[in-house]
Amino acid sequence: MGDATETLRADIGEVDFMLNDGSPLPALDVLKLVAPALRPGAVVVTDNVGVFKADYRDYIAYVRDPRHGFASMTMPFRSGAEYSVRLPARPG
After folding, report:
1. Which of 16, 53, 60, 92 is 20 to 30 A from 72 via CA?
2. Residues 27-51: pLDDT tens digits?
3. Which pTM does this prediction carry?
4. Does residue 29 contact residue 53 with C-beta atoms inside 8 Å?
5. Side-chain-side CA neighbours of residue 75 (13 Å)
6. Taking the CA of residue 35 as centre, how many other CA atoms within 13 Å lie in the half-sphere pointing to its CB?
């Protein structure tokens, strides 16, 4: 147990699935730490984005910007969950 922004600085190997279900404010920082380890096709699910829309505004903008290598949408569950897939790296 601990602060994810600290514990995830270690080499975590390759990641196929990430559940980002902590406090909304560090969610983007946590994703950015894990992103280099996400394999193409890896799934990231971030819970409660519909309940805390303002707190997740930057996170949602990031994963929906194609320059960051994700395809993403909010799944229509009661609290909203963002479902993001890591895209293959674009050449050059």
Report:
1. 92
2. 999 999 999 999 999 999 999 999 9
3. 0.87
4. no
5. 11
6. 17
